[in-house]
Design goal:
CATH architecture of chain A: 2-Layer Sandwich
Oligomer: heterotrimer
Number of domains of chain A: 1
Structural class of chain C: alpha/beta
Structural class of chain A: alpha+beta
Helix content of chain C: 40-55%
CATH topology of chain A: Heat Shock Protein 90
Distance between the termini of chain A: 15 Å
Strand content of chain C: 15-25%
Number of domains of chain C: 1
CATH superfamily of chain A: Histidine kinase-like ATPase, C-terminal domain
Chains: A alpha+beta (about 140), B alpha/beta (about 130), C alpha/beta (about 110)
Number of helices of chain C: 5
CATH class of chain C: Alpha Beta
Number of strands of chain C: 5
Order of helices and strands of chain A: EHHEEHHHEE
Order of helices and strands of chain C: HEEHEHEHEH
Radius of gyration of chain A: 14 Å
Shape of chain C: globular
Largest sheet of chain A: 5 strands, antiparallel
Strand order of the largest sheet of chain A: 1-2-3-5-4
Strand content of chain A: 25-35%
């Protein structure tokens, strides 16, 4: 049987108080769909870091999660300043975070690295002053 | 150790989650960097941190921490406690600093939930 | 307990020995937020952190720490290392987590 589920969450830039809200909800929904263990964990971590990225750096964005029998694909699209040098942004420890982000416990240049580490498939593209698109695939 | 024993050892206040105090805990992860908690904390471990914002509760939910210990006697905002109640995560507050808290727990048999890091991202269990 | 002995017992790798590793370590401080470490750590503390950027050196100089240990296999940035040598702050790294490093150091100091 081939079942598909899809849900989307809007995320507002600079709304630091709500950081992680969408990801906790995504994790809850995935759990209800019977997803557990390592797959659930990796998906939740990847969405959390992505959500924090939107809040920290973009104007607004959307996290879209699509679940099939074989995998979970996550699409994170934001409108924002974009990333000039993706290779540099991917490097562990590289960060352009301000104090607000650091005091929250993020901004140590781990985000994209963590996301990639959790994914079986990872694609990132960005246009300066337009936004960034992140596609993540996690096999079930 | 149970959370109750940990609370006694650290002379900690139980801010929420009284009903989970008999939960057995074996491992811990100390950090103020939430990205590190996301990357390295393991299910069932306790998170020990100096942060108090509601995010620590959401992160604990994501990585399945068994409890949060807030150090340096800080009182978290109401929103943090409300969220912890909603997501069923016990929160303790101790006056000890992170270093002392880690030391006392380690002396009582709690180990780090990650052993050594070998190469970026790969974790070797203790 | 001095840094040389601690490094030996915990297998810490010395990236910069600063003004020397014979300085006595009286306590430790675990923290990743510079403002917190600035406000609450003490002189002669060994600072345990996973922050590797160069600002950590300035904090350590101001607070007169015995040294800095980077945990979780993090390596200091080039700038951090240069600044640490210039300012005489010992900088050591370990693959242990902050909890493990703090746990072991606390118990070695208080033995």
């Amino acid at each position: 049987m081939n079942r598909k589920y899809e849900f989307s969450f809007p995320v507002e830039g600079k709304n630091f108080d709500d950081a992680g809200k969408a990801s906790v909800e995504i994790k809850r929904l995935l759990k209800e769909l019977g997803i557990a263990g390592d797959v659930l964990r990796r998906t939740a971590i990847a969405t959390y870091e992505s959500e924090v990225n939107i809040i920290s750096y973009a104007w607004k964005g959307t996290i879209n999660v699509r679940v099939t029998d074989n995998n979970i694909s996550i699409k994170i699209q934001d409108s924002g300043p974009g990333i000039t040098d993706i290779e540099q942004a991917m490097r562990q420890g590289y960060s352009t975070a301000d104090d607000r982000i650091r005091e929250m416990g993020f901004g140590a240049g781990m985000g994209l690295f963590n996301i990639k580490n959790c994914s079986d498939g990872f694609e990132i593209s960005s246009k300066v002053n337009k936004g960034t698109l992140l596609k993540i695939l996690i096999n079930r | 150790m149970t959370l109750r024993e940990i609370a006694n050892l650290l002379d900690a206040k139980v801010l929420t989650g009284e009903k989970y105090l008999d939960t057995e805990v074996k491992t811990a992860f100390s950090a103020d960097l939430m990205s590190d908690v996301l990357a390295f904390a393991k299910p069932g471990s306790i998170m020990i941190t100096g942060l108090t914002n509601p995010q620590i509760v959401r992160i604990a939910n994501i990585v399945d921490n068994s409890a949060i210990i807030i150090v340096r006697g800080k009182t978290p905002p109401d929103e943090t406690i409300r969220l912890a109640e909603e997501l069923d995560i016990p929160v303790l507050s101790t006056r000890y600093i992170l270093f002392e808290t880690s030391g006392k727990l380690y002396a009582n048999g709690i180990i780090g939930c990650v052993g050594k890091i070998e190469g970026p991202g790969s974790v070797v269990p203790l | 307990m001095n840094l040389t002995l601690l490094a030996e017992k915990l297998n810490l790798m010395v990236r910069c020995s600063g003004d020397g590793l014979d300085r006595e370590v009286s306590g430790g401080y675990v923290g990743d937020l510079l403002s917190d470490v600035m406000a609450n750590s003490k002189t002669d503390d060994l600072w345990i952190t996973c922050q590797s950027h160069q600002n950590i050196v300035a904090v350590s100089v101001l607070k007169e720490h015995a040294g800095i240990i980077l945990v979780l296999g993090k390596e200091p940035d080039k700038d951090t290392l240069e600044k640490a040598s210039r300012e005489g702050i010992p900088l050591l790294v370990t693959e242990l987590s902050g909890f493990e490093a703090a746990g072991r150091i606390y118990n070695l100091i208080n033995e």
